[in-house]
Structure formats: C-alpha cells, structure tokens
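Students often ask why we bother encoding 3D structure as a string. The short answer is that it lets us treat folding as translation between two languages. Here is a chain of 379 residues written in the first language.
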Amino acid sequence: MNAKSIKGHSTLEIKTALEQSMLDGYKPTLAIVFISVNQDRKAIINLLDDKEISVFGSTTNGEFIDEDSDTGSVAILLLDIKTEHFKIYLEEYPEKNYREIAQSIASKAKREFDKPAFLMAASHMETDAEQLLFGFEDIIGKHVNVFGGMAGDDFSFSEQYVFTNGTESNRGTVVLALDEAKIEIKGIATCGWNAVGTEKTVTKSEGNHVYTVDNVPVLDITVKYGGLVNVTPDNENLLLELAANFPLQLQREKGDPVMRPGLVVDWEDRSFYCSGTVPQGSKVRFSLPPDFDVMEKVIKGVEQLKATEMPEADALVVFSCAGRIMSLGPLMTEELEGIKNVWNVPMAGMFSNGELARATGGNLEMHNLTTCCVALKEK
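And here it is in the second language, the structure alphabet:
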C-alpha cells in the first residue's frame, strides 16, 4: 500500500494538499483524519467524499504528521488500500450499552473477514472503553488486535466527536475493520513513567472511584509520595499536576501495569475518580514525574516491535495521551521524531483522552499517559 500524510489549518489548505498528493495519479481509498473541534469537519468530510475516499475520523487534543505536532489543525493519513480489504462502522451508545455495541460491530466484521483487526476511536467522557474492548474479545477472541484512542476536544473536556462519511457522533465509536489476511497490523502501547515505593493495596473503590489506598484517603497518600503543596480546591493546577505527573500504576497479574491518573477530586472524603476501573483489592504503585527516559522507553519499545514482529511497514498511526504533551511539552517532538525514524514511513496521529491497546505481555486495556503506535503493511 502507498501512504501519504497531509496537514493544514483550513479546509482550503487540506484541499490544496490533497490535490497535490494526487497529481502523480495517486488514488487513496481511505483517509484517517485527526482534526481539531474548531475545524470544519463536515467540509473536510465532503472534500474527501468527493474524491470517493472513505473516512475514519476523530476530534483531538492536538494532531500531527511525522514529528510535526500542532493544535487547531487537520492531520490526515491517506492510504490506497483495496476497498474489499476494509470496512468502516459507526455506532452510537446512548444507552451506555458499550459491550453490546462492540459485539455487534465485531459480528458484522467477522461476517466480512475470517480474521478481522480493528482501529477505533470513541467519543464522550463517560464512555467505558474497557467494555468496548471486551465486546470485541467476546466475538473474535482474546487474540483480537484492537488499537485506538478516545476522542479529544482541544482540552475543553466538553464534547468530542467521531465521524465517517455522512455521519458523526458525540456519543459513539467509529471502527475501521481490516482484513488481517491482506493487511498486517501490529502495535505497542508504552508509557515509560517510573514507579516509586512498594506496592499498595486499594482498600476501597467502586469502578473508577478510588477512596482509599492502604486505608488512607487516596489524595492524601498521593500528596505524601509526590510532595505536593497547596492541595486545596482553589489550586487550579492541582488536577493537571496529579494527572500528568503522579498517576497510579495499576498492577496486572499478566503484563505491564496500566496508568490510572486521578482526574476529579471529591474534597469531602479526599477520594478521586480515575480514567478507568481500579478494582478494590488491586495493587498499585505511585509514579515519579517524567524525565528523558520516558521518551527513550517509548522509542525503544517501538524499535523492539520492528525487530521482533514488524520489520517493514507502509504507514504508522499513533495515539498519544494528551497528558504526555502536558508533562513533556516541546520534548514531545523528540519522541515523535524517534518513532517516525524507526520505519521512516508516512505517519499521522492524535493526542487523545485515552489509549486502547494490548498492554505489553498482557490483555487489551484502556491506557492513559501512554503512546500507542500502530504499524500497517499490505501483504
């Protein structure tokens, strides 16, 4: 497959870049579109529709092609995959029946392809993405390849969108199903945050609401390990500091730990809500603020993927947590450049509200503060 990446800050810039990409006779059939909520999504969709290009799209907290990251823009990965080798589905879940919706999509894909793999994006802050992942496993099996991210909205955390040709949803999922007999897809999710201290036990939690760790309010024990000051409701930067620098690391029996940053504090009991489920009785460790080795671990993980599973690739899709750019700032460019240089093929990505992928050596997970790199190659 041939891939090209284009980028712009307006519909006109995208129109010009798209036309230039096709001057040599290139005819893309699929566009993976990462777009700011402030851009005109419908105009971009119509532009691609006019060229008979299928759209897999998500709004973001920032978008990039190659190592060139930006905000308020449009980043598109163009692919010329044969149309019989992929299908796109968009389904909504107003009843919060996430698992059933994913089961339905997986069932449709299984009727199309003997061995389907999936790229997905989902919208709405309430969405339980773990249940979506379970739905794919229910139908396809534990071995299923699923990668993706949660849609963003330029850090407003108010309304996110996923979309395809002719339709969009602020409470739904868009899914690109690929025929693995024809398209090879491999990915890796790497965080890089270092743990500190011994394992602790979550002594009280309900779903993603963590009350106590080792019988101490979770906010208090996090403050102790992080050395945080001015821990009051008036500190506007507290939540950002908690989420970006001091996330919980939820230990798994199998595979790497997954990150569970605190996002909302309940000041009455000094508990907080995390990005995903933290079961009562589970083991957690605390995190150190990130430094250079966070990026190095991500790049080394991608290099290992190339060395062991994917020696060649035609294109890369990257879902990187919005929290990483908050923590790493301009250094994110170095991480993206390092990923790009592994295969040196066209790449597009987004800064997401959550990442969906198999944990290294483990199960499908909802991640945070993680970079999920997905490599594609036509067989």
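Translate back mentally: The mean pLDDT is 92. Keep this in mind for the problem set.
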